[in-house]
Fold this protein.
Amino acid sequence: MNVTDIAFWIFAAIAVVSGWRVFCTDSMVRASFLLMLSFIAVGLIMVLLNAPYLGIATVFMMAVEMMVMALFMVMYMMNPAGLNPMMMVHQHRFSIAAGVFLFAALAGLIIVTRFASNPVAPGTEVVAGLGKELLGDSMLIFETAGVTLLATMVASVILSSRSGRFGAADTGSVPPPLEPGGEPAGRQPEQGGGHAHHHH
Amino acid sequence: MTTIALTAAWVAFLLGMAWYVAVLDGLWAAAREGRSPRAPLANPLYRCATMLRHQSNLTEAPDLLNWRLAPALYAGLAGTGVALVPFSSTNVLADLDVGIVWWGAIEALTVVIVFLHGWSANSQFGLIGAYRYVAIGLPVMLISMFVLIATALPAESLAIPKIIESQRGFWNVIRQPVGLPLFLLLGLSLSFRGPFNYADSADVAGGTAAEVSGAPRLVWEFARLAMLTAVAAVAASVFLGGYLGPWFPGPMWLVLKTAAVLLVLVGLSHQLARISPSRMMTLIWTVLLPLSFLHLVWAGVLAL
């Protein structure tokens, strides 16, 4: 085993263990950053595979993404500020079965697949090659995906922002009913605005 | 230079520049308050000793792992940032093909670590500082990425040594004049100083460091200075030609340019007022970020 092999096993262990811990923790912030740690380890394995741009870009992207995800999850949770301990998994039996099945299927695929072995020659301009690929033959795919993602982001900001062309977005909005076709859930606003009366 | 000598130079650079910034901070603060500074050169060391003698504070139910790791990781990130910077054309500790991409990862991970530092203390002020920092730190990071990509265009490379070599004719600060000022904002944001101190400011009782004392506090404050040093060294390399220059040997030029950038950064952090986070958000998203787009277009047209 040389240094690269040892590094691979260390990163692989970090990726698997932190990925597993995502489902054991009781906090969304911890879950996000454990997932980030798992992805960072995968990114470093990509660096070992002589894909430095993709590997380090993965680290960079995952750090930003998990930071934003942690904040958004905390913002939109029902429990106070999303900071109380909570169960991170649902539908235990189904998810355990699905996990075991998927793991077996993917592991089986890895075992039966004959992987090509054509190592990149040292000194190959991999970063320049990737750039030429992204802005050459694959440009249409990447630009389409990029513009679609940008449009999605802009649209989600417009949909979630309170101030809009037609007044505040939450004007006239009512919470959904608890039963189909029933009364809206929660306390109803009083007629004419002003302070709500307290019902005891 | 051997790797050992390079590593020693790297440690000396980090410690020396952190001390230099602390001295500058003391002198600047004394000058603003109109008093004569007391032992300006030794004062940072006294403060280190004082912090070390303090007890390490503990809050109720903190996330101890993240809380204790955050200062060390922050300092470590600053260290990898300085490692990217070549001392001369042949002496660079981390000669990465994708140096500025790794620098982008450092910026992103810094936001994560400052957030975790504030979050893990389980204290209100820390949490407020952490949230404010993320809101401002992320868009500032975007600006710096556009600015850095612009410096890679004339070099046709993402490696910092190649970006320096591309400045043999003109420094990037001349070719891309808007780049350096925008990048200096990143320096203030990554080490949350002056106008960008949304994480650890006095209005939230010290923010993410409100509950931190003793050795962890010392590491945290050192890491802030080390991160400022890393930003200054990268700025000196990608905008001011790094080790390039006449008469003196390369490493000396790097030290001189880094020291000059640090002087500007310290001046900005003491002279500029901080505005409220929401106004800063508006300024960043509506003025500075579009400016960085235009800057990138300008750099691209110039590189053609």
